[in-house]
Amino acid sequence: MCQDCSKGTISRRGLFVGGIAFSVAAASGSTTAFAQETSAAAATPDEALELLKEGNARYVANTPANMDHSADRVARSQGQQPFAAVVTCSDSRVVPELIFDQPPGALFVIRVAGNFLNDDGIATLEYGVAVLGIKTILVLGHSSCGAVDATIKSIKNRELPPGHLPSLVNAITPAVYDVMGDNPDDLLAAATGQNAKLNAERAAATGPILSEAQGAGKISTAAAVYDIATGKVSFL
Questions:
Q1: Are residues 231 and 147 in contact, defined by beta-carbon separation less than 8 angstroms?
Q2: Where are the domains of the chain?
Q3: What's the average pLDDT block by block, 10 residues per block, for the chain (236 residues)?
Q4: CA distances (Å), origin 45, targets 58, 115, 198
Q5: pTM
Q6: Taken in order 127, 39, 78, 138, is the CA torsion positive or negative?
Q7: Fewest C-beta in 10 Å: which of 92, 113, 115, 182?
Q8: CA distance 169 to 191
Q9: CA distances from 209 to 4, 88, 214, 220, 229 (A)
Q10: Are the C-beta atoms of 151 and 169 separated by less than 8 Å?
Q11: Which residues pair with residue 221 across a beta bridge?
Q12: In sequence order, what are the residues at sequence separation of 6 or more whose Cβ sits closer than 8 angstroms to the Cβ of residue 44?
């Protein structure tokens, strides 16, 4: 038996995360100056979330700080170190890098119609936390979300859409049922916000990687809704 192996037990998760980190480091080389600057600006979860809020304020005011997206292109080829993960809808009008006025390489984006988290999304976030060192996770819904609207119609009509679309409806249905009993004036808006909150809660509570990082204060998790007409992100 290997002498080193007999000294203790190495967890599967430790081997897996360590293996990914080693592979990324080998492929990326040294950390770029761009990544270092981004990491320094978001050293804590609170600072990372504040960067998103400040960026959105610039976007709403039409005073973006990031105009030249070709800058640092060569440096970015050496590696990435995003400070935040954004779980958002696939809607073509929702572009996180623009909404939060961030350059390429600053955000780790997970997109799916209806901005919900399944196992693949959770695994992607785990990679972002364990390997890339993201400091905050934001689940971002948006106004006039077609996926949420389709779910509401499916529930009211008691009819599932064709093809693979029921998988989207089934994922969003809990949020719709949560708010329907309150008879909100705008059911779509209420369900959109609740869907973002439920998925942010799932991200924070899912173990072992995300919940441990959340509990240790290494990451924060938040929910928000983006208004397409005004450009403003409202944090919930």
A1: no
A2: 12-235
A3: 41 48 40 51 90 97 86 84 97 97 95 97 98 97 97 95 94 97 96 98 97 97 98 98
A4: 20, 21, 20
A5: 0.83
A6: positive
A7: 92
A8: 12
A9: 26, 21, 9, 13, 36
A10: yes
A11: 137
A12: 135
- pLDDT score, position 40: 61
Q: List the beta bridge partners of residue 88.
A: 111, 140
Please answer whether residues 37 and 82 qualify as being in contact, where contact means their C-beta atoms are separated by less than 8 angstroms. no
Give the residue carrying structure tokens 């990372």. 48
Return the residue matching tokens 């785990």: 126
| Two structure tokens written together for 108 | 């780790």
Q: What CATH architecture does domain 12-235 belong to?
A: 3-Layer(aba) Sandwich (3.40)
In Å, what is the CA distance from 125 to each residue of 32, 69, 168, 205, 219? 22, 25, 19, 12, 11
Q: What is the DSSP string of the chain?
A: --TTGGG-PPPHHHHHHHHHHHHHHHHH-SPPHHHHHHHHHT-SHHHHHHHHHHHHHHHHHT--S---TTTTHHHHTT----SEEEEE---TT--HHHHTT--TTSEEEEE-TT----HHHHHHHHHIIIII---EEEEEEETT-HHHHHHHHHHHHT---STTTHHHHHHHHHHHHHHHTT--S-HHHHHHHHHHHHHHHHHHH-TTHHHHHHHTTS-EEEEEEE-TTT-PEEE-
